[in-house]
Specification:
Blueprint lengths: L1 H53 L9 H15 L4 H6 L1
């Protein structure tokens, strides 16, 4: 009689352990899903930062007006031309 109750106790412990393992597996799966969704959100935020950064205003020296001014000042400084010669053209 005692032997049978000991076997029943061992079986009950195995069942409880199995149920605990299943619960842990479900919790791990939930955490993994949260991690994947968090990675996806971070990737989207980083892509938005790059896209919005690329859509910003153009630097002045890259515009047509800025290029003309830069050429004018470079001609005066390095081309040996005076400002009055440059204005005549």
């Amino acid at each position: 009689m005692e032997r049978l109750s000991l076997l029943e106790a061992v079986h009950a412990a195995k069942v409880r352990l199995t149920m605990n393992m299943v619960d842990l597996k479900l919790k791990i799966d939930e955490l993994a899903a949260d991690y994947r969704s968090m990675k996806r959100i971070i990737a989207i935020v980083i892509m938005l930062v790059f896209v919005l950064g690329a859509c910003g205003p153009k630097p002045y020296y890259k515009t047509a007006k800025g290029k003309k001014k830069q050429k004018y000042y470079n001609d005066i400084q390095f081309g040996g031309k005076s400002a009055s010669e440059m204005k005549m053209k």
